[in-house]
Design a protein that fits this description.
The protein is α+β, with helices and mostly antiparallel strands. It folds into four domains: 10-117, 2-Layer Sandwich (Methyltransferase, Cobalt-precorrin-4 Transmethylase, Domain 2), CATH 3.30.950; 145-196, no CATH class; 202-365, Heat Shock Protein 90 (2-Layer Sandwich); 376-445, Arc Repressor Mutant, subunit A. The chain is built from 15 helices and 20 strands. It is elongated.
Length: 452
């Protein structure tokens, strides 16, 4: 005995008297799974009851499907004997969803058909067209293999553990060719001059003297491949923010006021996930109190700011670019980038403004210099820090009177400029004096340092 059961891809109808409902079920299954089947002559509890089947019955089923479903589908309609009873089996497939029955769209939920809301219908259309709309997998019609830089490709392949033989073969390995033509991702990442094909293969950087854009101190544009621009963005930020230092054993380690790994991750995300159909470029804006990394294109795939802050989740606008970045360990497939940024820089802010996504990092140096923020507590803290530095300098001099300012800096973990300031202060106070020339002379401690 044959057992039937309704599912998300199987609908059972007692007879063709329920043909209209069957057409709706077909659409609902196509919209959910792009396939489905309907049986006439089987009750919805799975009992086979059969029905009269004639040539006209078969034509009516085919005609009803043809006339009342859009876009058109081409079902397989056949007469089937089941447990000695005559039934009609209809099989359908189609990938042109959303499909409509009698002018309305439906979706399968369990074994029921539910009409789609306007928002659900919009999301279905966007999801369906997502791959078709991807910029990075489009063919760059004007570019040829001759435009690709072999050196860039060799460096990349070495970084991801692959061997280089020829440019065409290497691009093929990376899925950067379609029907013998270069994809946009290949040109943006490996062309000698990507800007020749994409004017927005550009990084725009600026430093402003205030909290807004009224006073411009520096402005610079960079052109080149995505990896080059990421490097330049990182260098530009490091060049224009304050760098402190700490000791790691006997070695001095530079410590930027904004965590380097955090803003580098934001830069990589900007180039990886930006909307390259927008003419604008990735922008770096450095203000007195913050650094902004601005990327054309809002969050993708329905994500919200709340989603990316709370969940380890990402939706990729440029899937092929993301794969390339992942190969050389620029990004992780699990979307941990935002979490890492917030772990290293908890005060980082993310926002969508106009057509841009913006990551904002606060500059720690601004809080120390902001008018009204340095009160008595801050002043005392600064004085104590200065006293400790002076004590370290005096101890270094006591152990080696011929020690140079640079050697003192290396020994106690201060910047050479900071050491020079402290030495000048101690000389003015009469605590130390220099005997002989800068080279070949020595330090002498004249009196004990006074403490308030």
């Amino acid at each position: 005995m044959t057992i039937f059961q309704e599912t998300e891809t199987v609908e059972l109808k007692k007879s063709t008297s329920e043909l209209k409902e069957a057409v709706i079920s077909i659409v609902a299954m196509l919209n959910k799974h792009q396939r489905g089947e309907v049986w006439f002559g089987v009750k919805n509890d799975g009992t086979v009851v059969g029905q009269q089947v004639s040539d006209k019955t078969m034509r009516d089923v085919s005609k009803s499907i043809s006339e009342h479903i859009e876009p058109k589908i081409y079902p397989v309609v056949e007469q089937v004997a089941v447990d000695g009873q005559q039934c009609i089996k209809v099989q359908v497939e189609g990938g042109e969803h959303p499909y409509y029955a009698y002018g309305r769209a439906y979706v399968r939920v369990g074994d029921e058909d539910r009409q789609l809301s306007a928002k659900e219908l919009e999301n279905m259309v966007l999801t369906k067209n997502r791959d078709r709309l991807r910029w990075d997998t489009d063919v760059c019609a004007k570019a040829t293999v001759d435009d690709i830089g072999a050196g860039k490709l060799k460096t990349f392949l070495k970084g991801c553990g692959l061997k280089f033989d020829t440019i065409p073969n290497s691009l093929e390995k990376l899925n950067l060719v379609k029907d013998g033509k270069l994809l946009n991702a290949a040109v943006l990442c490996f062309a000698r001059k990507p800007e020749k094909f994409f004017p927005n293969a550009r990084l725009r950087c600026a430093v402003f003297g205030t909290l807004d854009t009224t006073v411009t101190i520096s402005m610079q544009d960079f052109y080149g491949d995505a990896f080059y621009l990421i490097k330049k963005a990182e260098e530009y930020i490091l060049e224009h923010i304050n760098i402190g230092m700490r000791l790691d054993g006997l070695l001095r380690v530079d410590v930027p006021e904004i965590d380097r790994e955090a803003f580098r991750e934001a830069i990589i995300n900007a180039f990886c996930h930006r909307d390259y159909r927008e003419y604008d470029s990735v922008n770096i804006a450095i203000f007195k109190d913050r650094v902004e990394i601005r990327s054309p294109g809002l969050l993708y795939g329905g994500l919200t700011i709340s989603d990316i802050r709370r969940k380890m989740l990402s939706e990729r606008r440029n899937e092929l670019m993301s794969e390339l970045f992942h190969r050389v360990h620029f990004i992780e497939k699990w979307g941990r980038g935002i979490k890492m940024i917030l772990e290293r820089e908890p005060q980082t802010e993310f926002e969508e403004l106009g057509t841009h996504f913006i990551a904002t990092f606060k500059r720690k140096s601004y809080d120390l210099t902001k008018p009204g923020r340095i009160g008595k507590t801050a002043q005392k803290s600064s004085e104590k820090s200065s006293e400790k530095s002076s004590e370290k300098i005096l101890a270094a001099i006591a152990s080696n009177p011929e020690i140079s300012a640079r050697q003192i800096a290396e020994a106690i973990g201060m910047s050479p400029r900071g050491v020079e300031k402290q030495l000048d202060k101690l000389r003015v106070q009469g605590v130390i004096k220099r005997v002989g020339p800068d080279k070949g002379g020595y330090w002498e401690v004249v009196k004990e340092q006074k403490h308030d």
